[in-house]
Amino acid sequence: MTLSPAVAALAAADFSGIVPHFIAAGFAVSEPAAGVVQIVGDPSRTSVLLSVGVHGDETAPIELLAQLLDVLARQPQQLAVNLMIVVGNIAAIRQARRFIDVDLNRLFCRERGLLSATAEAARADELMLSSRVFFTRAAGLRLHLDLHTAIRGSLYPTFAMIPHGIAATDRQALIALLGHAGIAAVILNRSAASTFSAYTAAQFGATSATVELGQVSALGDNDPARFAAASATLARTLRGEAAPAIPQVPLVFEVVQEIIKRSDTFRMSFDGTTPNFTALSRDAVIATDGIHAYRVGHDEEYVVFPNPAVRIGFRAALMVVRCDAPAVFGAAH
Ligand SMILES: [Zn+2]
Description:
alpha/beta; Aminopeptidase; CATH 2.40.50.630; 2 domains; three-stranded antiparallel beta sheet; globular; binds zinc ion
């Protein structure tokens, strides 16, 4: 399929088609690293980081964002926030692969051990530094949406992970925003994580989420109608426009277990094709690792991101439960 010029440019981390419009409209524009652009006006405005392509084979967010920016660049004075765009794993996007050496979205941390020499570690350093510069000079609200598409089916095709450490009122506003964007379920993670969104939440107090917009298609094959709510919500956010009055409330889950692969003997009751939010009942074996067995501890737990093929030491799945009173979640910790 032929890509639109805007999509092809963003997939190649080329901002040259949009940058002159924002400069002409009076914004300070900088490109601190490849695939990173910062378009900044008054520091008291809300600062919004939108990242795409952190996984190189997840193309729908690249298409969505390219189209948004293409429209906005023609009316640049409508941009009402300070905006940072990140095209994450440029080399992997070029090869239509999830990553080159290792999953970039596990490297937003200081201690990387044996992974320090990977291609993705250097890229994570660039993105961490660029986000630090962007958010450190932000005097207003800070929002980060890291846009993904799931690599498997899901009972809830659209869902978001909300990292630990976001104040309860900000988290409620974020959940409302995600609902308007068509996100059916949110998962609250109370543990530290080394994802991009967890990093910006922990380091810069950003209201952050990893947003799964649906299943992956090849670049140019994603149906834009499926992402209409997300696209409209992002367009409103960038223009500082109010959300529609009718709330769309996602279901709320929380993480109760992280399944970590500790050895080569790790075996899981799911494989990489198991749909997200597949349920298991109390006492069911989730995985075994040598003599250790991971079991379901609640009446029902749902698996998210099951992937027994991860490297040793990495997360092979998350187990989540429904948590219908998210305010209680915040108060308890
Ligand atoms: Zn992803």
